[in-house]
Amino acid sequence: MTDIWQSAMDHAVVLARKAGQVVRDAVGDAQKEAVMVKSSSIDLVTQTDQKVEKLIIQSVKEKFPTHCFIGEESVAAGEVCVLTDSPTWIIDPIDGTTNFVHTFPFVAISIGFSVNKQVEFGVVYSCLQDQMYTARRGKGAFCNGRPLRVSHQKDIRQAIIATEFGSNRDPGVVDKVFSSLKRVVSIPVHGVRGAGSAAINMCLVASGCVEAYYEIGIHVWDIAAGSLIVSEAGGVLMDVDGGPLDLMSRRVLAANNQSVAEHLAKEIDAFRVRRDDAAS
Ligand code: IPD
Ligand code: CA
User: How far is CA 192 from CA 128, 158, 184, 259, 264, in A?
Assistant: First the structure.
């Protein structure tokens, strides 16, 4: 049977590679780029983020004129952020903008594609590492064409957990982030890491390098593609409180298996943040 979304996925891979070249060309000059701020002084955006998002959306519009978009920089510019049943491209032109600005080498282009609110394919291109992660629903996850599989580890005490501090430094939020971190470190786990890119953290779970990743404060464009890459690599996704994942809730827990996920969820001091679709 033909896969009706395969040509869209092939196009996403081509665009991610093209965008990756733009980012690689810019990264040498990233420290000279004008850095602008969005929700807070540590929520950064550059002209390269905006240029890459335009490049991707323009090209998709030419090829698939009826499709919808949720793009990080378009939303920042005032577009609505609403996930409908229509075919929707969910785009983070640079996931890891802070890394990009500092030339810290984990920077990704993340393109998810959903239909009926279900992610059909995900493409995450870690462009400085030249690693192209892809997943098609029901057809597995791959990195540069090599199949991905999550770690077999069932004991969280032998796990590496990825997380991030996020871009909200309100004292109450920082307290909660650190109270969770303290509990996770004290399980004790083998280690805690963070790549500075939600999409890459999720690909690390899919690759079996880390057992789990959690964060509160991410956005749908950070996790849409990565969520399918994790599940197609055999992993599980949930809310940080152990309930079902809601892509618009700005909370995510991705793990290699249910037992690691449930243990981790018990240690997280979960709090609510304004949803991505709150104003829509
Ligand atoms: C950010 C990165 C970071 C995560 C933030 C995200 P951006 O995305 O994924 O790792 O901690 O929550 O917003 O701003 O670089 O696209
Ligand atoms: Ca971004």
Answer: 23, 11, 8, 18, 12
